[in-house]
Amino acid sequence: MSSNSKRQTKAAVKPKVGVFKFASCDGCQLSLLDAEDELLGVVGAVDIAYFPEASRKMLKGPYDIGLVEGSITTHHDAERIQEVRRKCRTLITIGACATAGGIQALRNWKDVDEFIRVVYAAPQFISTLKLSTPIAEHVPVDFELRGCPINKYQLIELITATLAGRKPNIPTYSVCMECKRKANVCIAVARGRACLGPVTQAGCGALCPSYDRGCYGCFGPMETPNTAALTSQFRILGQSDEQISRAFRSFNAWAWQFRRASEECKRV
Amino acid sequence: MSGRGTRTIKVDTLARVEGEGAIYIKMAGDRVSDVKLRIYEPPRMFEAFLRGRHFSEVPDITARICGICPIAYQMSAVHAIERALGINIDPAVRLLRRLFYCGEWIESHALHIYMLHAPDFLGYQDVIEMAKDHRDVVEKALRLKKIGNRIVQLLGGREIHPISAAVGGFHKTPAKEQLRELVGDLEWSLNASLEAVQWTSTLQFPDFEQDYEFVALRHPDEYPFCEGRLVSNHGLDIDAAEYEDRFAELHVKHSNALHSVIRGRGSYLVGPLARFNLNFEKLPDVARKAAINTGLRPPVKNLFRSIQVRAVELVFACAEALRIIAAYEPPSAPRVEAPNRTGVGQAITEAPRGILYHRYAVNENGLIVTAKIIPPTSQNQRRIEDDLREYAAHLAAWPLDEATWKCEQAVRCYDPCISCATHFLKVVIERE
Predict the structure, then answer these.
(1) How far does B82 lie from chain A, in Å, by closest CA?
(2) A185/B contact by beta carbon, under 8 A
(3) CB A83 within 8 A of CB B12
(4) A28, A105, A209, A237: which has the fewest Cβ within 10 Å?
(5) Where do the domains of chain A lie, and which CATH numbers do they carry?
(6) ipTM, 2 decimals?
(7) If you measure CA to CA, which chain B residue comes closest to A131?
């Protein structure tokens, strides 16, 4: 009886989690559903109060944890993120769109009106901002989880740590560390391939080098990356400035270290 | 309940779909005066920023259009570019791409059948609620989904935005033994899929049949993935290169996704129902028999039965994966090097939710000059509105909240992928 009532009390205080989407592909929130072995455990530990991709049930805030996917690209979303922030005790951004503006931030170097004309026949129907920007440019963010897509185990670690009130164990070193640990032969040194691994944050498990190709930067800049040294190395490998600039301008193009690197190599 | 007043069926945030959309239906009595599937997913404008990128980057970039069906985006992209550059792929690579697609279909169909769609039939808000009463079903669904993801992971490195697909083949191809390791799981999946066909046939289906124009690929020997002519039950029979001559994209004010129509005819339906009805005889025996045993034969015109058809396609995907693994010999090289030439190429492949069209023009430096992408959900969009117009009229006498749920359910039958079509569903029914 007493253990029963204890269980009920515990159930009653389950932390409320909300999942919010802005401009994105849905892949990062799908990572939660892709954690097939852990999913039923996670939903047992928290109350999924708002997660439209998975449920019709949409409970009002406040939420203990808000997971935010996607970048800000419209006036409406710029207002909506303020409201989401107000409702979430801890706000976590997930994925390259939310933490760096995503691939859609390539518009930031172009004339967005021209982009709209390329895609849409009636441009007057489309309302969008000139820039695609990360969430942290709009509101304070408690933790940024990198990746395009995020690593589902890192997401579970982050949720677990947040619930326990401890610091999450998410490394900020480079992909090179993961390659070494897997005993991969360095494809940049041994095979002369352009690889962003030395400046990219770990998290993917050094996937691309393990599949015979150079890293293309899904997890964004590592802590204090030496992009200038890598740019020189790319030139030695015969890459043109145009190619080097494109390499830095992909899914984390607007992260300032990659952004600066992409602009510097074009200036030379 | 008077049937005469105005009423509005309104769903502001359509749940359990991929992306952001809303439904608005205005009715006077049992007459529907306005229907809008409003897609407010913000535009991301891939076709614009693909210009000036190297063709080798395209499969990595287009994957990011959709986290649920990245392989479809990679497959349409590589086939279109290979056509532009005149590349012929190794037959073993062709088989591996079919296997890759089997993985995505298994993952996506298992997710949709059990986690997004089934709760509607059983009266739950979501799969979490459903798991409390049907834990065994949900655990089976998760295991099925995981096996689909395992195939994708093995061939592509990870389940979301895989990294191995390349123009000309793959960056790396697996060894025979690696594929063999999947056999046990796939045999289990084949059985679980057969059970899914049984299980979905016990659900209650509304009596709602429409006269659709079904559009899907048709291949002379196989149930279609990446090749074949584009055909319909109304006489369409074209190559991918003719697609833009026969189909048009319209831009309507209420949607950030373009509406596709067949020129001169209007809306059409793509996806599992279309594939099943147009390719029934190409299904392997085990899938065809499972369908027939549960009374499912073409033409299936009831949209709600798409959940059953997805289960039949699960059986197909598991059987096909087993067939490919048994026959697999690794290619002599993981990919064919691309020649230095210019060209324009189009390709259509069958994403889990229907045909996906890509066209690229490539210049002498290998850079993309123009790109065109027409996702399955924007092709179904006009048809979804047509269905809602008919279906809301059927529901005129129903209480508003139930009618609203039913309309949402009708939209979910399409497994809409609104991120693809630009993204999330709201339903609004307004009754006079």
Answers:
(1) 20
(2) no
(3) no
(4) A237
(5) 2-164 (3.40.50.700), 175-267 (no CATH)
(6) 0.92
(7) B44
